[in-house]
Design goal:
By secondary structure, the protein is an alpha+beta fold. The chain has two helices and six strands. It has helices at about 5-20, 40-50, and strands at about 25-35, 60-65, 70-75, 80, 100-105, 105-115. The strands form two sheets. Strands 2-1-6 form a three-stranded mixed sheet. A three-stranded antiparallel sheet has the order 4-3-5, with no helix packed on it. The longest helix has 18 residues, at about 5-20.
């Protein structure tokens, strides 16, 4: 199941960014998942939960946003929903060689929400008491 390797990669990238940003915990991760990305969202959610264990992401919510697969025919300029299984022949003109898949392969992190750690407060600079003059 390649969803585990995807989940581990997402957790690694998010944890690195969160640590660099001073986060104490990650609360949610939003992913864009294309219809043709070959990812089963439920399997990814299960794997994500496992991959988060013991990290800053433990307990984080995974939100997946599906992206429908759409294609464009350069010959007749028609656009259509590709569907599953993918239909890459233009329904308008029957063209199959001048077709461009425009959406549906996405797999990317859209946003991450985390809790910031306590801000570091610089201690005040030591004050020097004036040295008393000797009389």
């Amino acid at each position: 199941m390649h969803e585990m390797s995807i989940a581990m990669a997402v957790v690694g990238q998010v944890e690195e960014a969160a640590e660099a940003g001073g986060a104490t915990a990650v609360t949610s991760v939003r992913l864009q998942v294309g219809e043709l990305a070959g990812v089963v969202p439920d399997a990814l959610a299960f794997c994500f939960e496992l991959a988060c264990a013991g990290t800053l992401l433990e307990g984080a919510e995974l939100v997946t946003e599906p992206v429908a697969a759409r294609a464009h025919c350069r010959s007749c300029t028609g656009d259509w929903a590709v569907g599953m299984p993918p239909r890459l022949v233009c329904p308008g003109c029957g063209q199959a060689t001048d077709v461009e898949l425009r959406t549906g392969r996405e797999l990317q992190i859209l946003s991450v929400h985390w809790e910031d750690g306590p801000t570091r407060v610089r201690p005040p600079a030591p004050t020097r008491e004036p040295i008393p003059e000797e009389h």
